[in-house]
Amino acid sequence: MCFCCVESTSKKDFLKTFGRHLKRLRVERGLTQANLAFEAGLSESQVQRIEYGNHNFSIMTLLAMARALELSPGQLLDL
């Protein structure tokens, strides 16, 4: 999904799509939610809510997760 498609997608659908993408990247790297949370300086429950699409997170949270996954923020947003 590209950003041009976001306007035609509900916020809820976008957050759910992002959450599935985040989980896929996390699992590919062999990280648990707890590992990702620790590396990103987040709570495990926050990572869970993001992966389930139940949390509209900040750009700083996105940056922290990207760094923890050793990705650029753009790569993390490349749905």
Give a nutshell description of this structure.
The chain is 67% helix and 0% strand. The protein is an all-alpha fold.
Summarize this structure as a short list of keywords or feature phrases:
TransReg_Diox_bact_type, mainly alpha, Helix-turn-helix transcriptional regulator, 434 Repressor (Amino-terminal Domain), 79 residues, globular, 6 helices, single chain, 0% strand, Lambda_DNA-bd_dom_sf
Break the fold down into its secondary structure elements and pairings.
Elements: H1 3-6, H2 11-28, H3 33-40, H4 44-51, H5 59-68, H6 73-77
Helix pairs in contact: 3-4, 3-5
Q: Could you please describe the fold and organization of this structure?
A:
By secondary structure, this protein is an all-alpha fold. Helices cover 67% and strands 0% of the residues. The protein is built from six helices and no strands. Helix 3 packs across helix 5 (59-68). Residues 22-76 form the HTH cro/C1-type domain.
Count structural domains: 1
How much β-strand is present in the residues?
under 5%
Helix/strand order = HHHHHH
Structural class: mainly alpha
CATH class: Mainly Alpha
Helix content: 55-70%
Query: What's the count of strands?
Result: 0
Could you list the spans in which at least 5 consecutive residues all have pLDDT below 50?
A: none
Q: Any idea of the CATH topology?
A: 434 Repressor (Amino-terminal Domain)
